[in-house]
Amino acid sequence: MRYIDAFNHFFPRRYYDALLDTPAGAKDLGKRVRGIPALSNLDERLRVVDMFENYSQVLSLGLPPVERLWGAEKAPEMARIGNDGLAEIVARHPDRFVGYSAFLPMNVPEAAVKEAERVLADGANAIQLASNVNGSPLDEPQFWPIFEVIAKSGRPILLHPARTRDMPDYPTEKISKYEICSVLGWPYETGVTLARLVFSGLIDRYPGLKVIAHHLGGVIPYLEGRVGHSWDQLGARTSDEDYASLLKRLKKRPYDYFKDFYGDTAVEGARAATACGIDFFGAEHVLFASDCPFDQEKGPGYIRATIAVLDSLGLSAQQMESICHRNAERMFGISAK
Amino acid sequence: MRYIDAFNHFFPRRYYDALLDTPAGAKDLGKRVRGIPALSNLDERLRVVDMFENYSQVLSLGLPPVERLWGAEKAPEMARIGNDGLAEIVARHPDRFVGYSAFLPMNVPEAAVKEAERVLADGANAIQLASNVNGSPLDEPQFWPIFEVIAKSGRPILLHPARTRDMPDYPTEKISKYEICSVLGWPYETGVTLARLVFSGLIDRYPGLKVIAHHLGGVIPYLEGRVGHSWDQLGARTSDEDYASLLKRLKKRPYDYFKDFYGDTAVEGARAATACGIDFFGAEHVLFASDCPFDQEKGPGYIRATIAVLDSLGLSAQQMESICHRNAERMFGISAK
């Protein structure tokens, strides 16, 4: 079986050095990324990739997103440096790295539009968006032109949860304590963002948009019942907003929008969750991904565990092919072998 | 098969009338509860229960919790009125209502201790706790004596997510928009609360405590991979807290505490999620529950859907008996038929 790993993280050299020079890089972030060689050392990363047969990666930069690390003056340049760094690695090692996603300087929406146009014309295979822009939801009007460019390109969005700590939505020590914010808050934040893309009307405006939500849709598949029945009753709990007419204005049942999103298999090797997520999205809307190299082995752990889980689910050959490589080939524009 | 519905909601007359007199009752809450007759009209509720063969309910008051509706002067009395109202209904209709859970006036911790002692001595089958006390996490020290009383009794906690809107943790319109706060935020909040009970050391202090988390554990089972592997690495993302020594201080691996909690099947009839949740907790730690009467039919909808889902999962006879009634009989102290 060919495995294309749709969502995993790497820092090219120049971007990595600049990242370590930021205030965050000098503290927790630097400590963390230094501890994981395969996140920035290309030889180490190649070693990990080569542990698996017929396995290749679509590279994405790691979080935090560009707009969180640098201000408006610096973010556009840093996004270019990061994206060009990934493009260069893909060009040099096309067998191991079959594509990449680009980050945009979302804190400068006009520059983000230009960078999206540039990288998509140059062959970027996807755009990676953090689920909020320094606390601003992605459905705010200033971001819509960016979605328009991505929708026109036909390439997918890789939606990554953004650090919720210190964000306006989650300001207190209550949530960030015990790293609850990343362990549970990230998948929740993913669900919140998908909901806002739906209810703001953004998906109706750009119906061709393909959104791949990291970690198998965040919390959405497990909350399928609520996503369906509770949102069918939108407005039952509030009287200060006219949600009844919002429901009528939407082109589809809320539930159906969520079913149309895509998920990846990066759930740290959880078998029952993988089954639940594939059941929700369907095999045509799930992509193999590992979140490499954030496992305890710092590279191969989640790749191995995820392959083993997929092998154990009793999926048909066609479902397996779709998940492991065909959906990625189609969506990212990668040649079938 | 006998079905004991472990978690569903009803307002006894006196409590309901007082609730409508509160500021919340005069607005959204009143509008909402008036629209669901089986939530407060006993004849209507009996009609719903009698639609199903060999089916009975353990009654719980509806949300918001007592401490949210009334201040410190009034909450202790209102909790008594609500609890005695449920106890009376159970006494009058022991075939249909085989038990009840009691709310405590959590905004007056000493009164909550006394009310817990009173109702547990009088035969309450469980204590229903909202997942936060007007924004204060349940693991704050003032609440520990309450957990001590419950742990001693051997009776379980029914953990209900509390309205996150207007809470310190979620202060903005960003989350409450589109009712995201209840649809997605409630199960997330459930997960946050379970995590805090673990990492605060409260579960180590009261190891006999049995916590049944509504909606099949909130988001926990789907996030099993993160709950396991990410929390094994607690501290990797932070340097300002000594989480390494916290991990060492805990008596078990974080993951194992979460596996020891209980969930109910109230997921609005979502089949794949039900399978995922039962896989996570195991059949000995899952209780049949419907969240009646919050379905679109205002009573029987989720009961019927949940029974159908359980019938479809190919569980063994023993697993089905555990989930449908034996776990409830054992934990709530209900006679086996």
Low-confidence stretches of chain A: 165-174
In angstroms, what is the radius of gyration of chain A? 19 Å
3D shape of chain A: globular
Strand content of chain A: 5-15%
Query: Which architecture of chain A would the CATH scheme give at its second level?
Result: Alpha-Beta Barrel
Number of helices of chain A: 18
Please provide the ordered H/E string of secondary-structure elements of chain A.
Answer: EHHHHEHHEHEEEHEHHHEHHHHEHEHH
What is the average of the pLDDT values of chain A? 93
Specify the CATH class of chain A: Alpha Beta
Number of domains of chain A: 1
Instruction: Specify the structural class of chain A.
Output: alpha/beta
Subunit organisation of the chains:
homodimer
Tell me about the biggest sheet of chain A?
Answer: 8 strands, parallel
Q: In CATH, what is the homologous superfamily of chain A?
A: Metal-dependent hydrolases
From the N-terminal CA to the C-terminal CA of chain A, the straight-line distance is 11 Å
The helix content of chain A is 40-55%
- Could you give the order of strands across the largest sheet of chain A? 1-2-3-4-7-8-9-10
In brief, what are we looking at here?
The structure is a homodimer of 337-residue chains. Chain A has one domain: Alpha-Beta Barrel (TIM Barrel).
Overview of the molecule:
- The structure is a homodimer of 337-residue chains.
- Chain A is α/β, with parallel strands linked by helices.
- Chain A has one domain (3-332): Metal-dependent hydrolases (TIM Barrel, Alpha-Beta Barrel), CATH 3.20.20.
- Chain A has helices at residues 13-20, 23-26, 28-34, 42-49, 66-69, 75-92, 109-122, 144-153, 173-176, 180-199, 202-205, 214-217, 224-232, 243-249, 254-260, 271-281, 301-312, 317-332, and strands at 3-9, 55-60, 97-103, 126-130, 132-133, 136-137, 157-160, 211-213, 262-264, 286-287.
- The longest helix of chain A has 20 residues, at 180-199.
- Mean pLDDT of chain A is 93; it is low at 165-174.
- Chains A and B meet through helix 3, helix 10, helix 13 and helix 16 of A and helix 3, helix 10, helix 11, helix 14 and helix 17 of B.
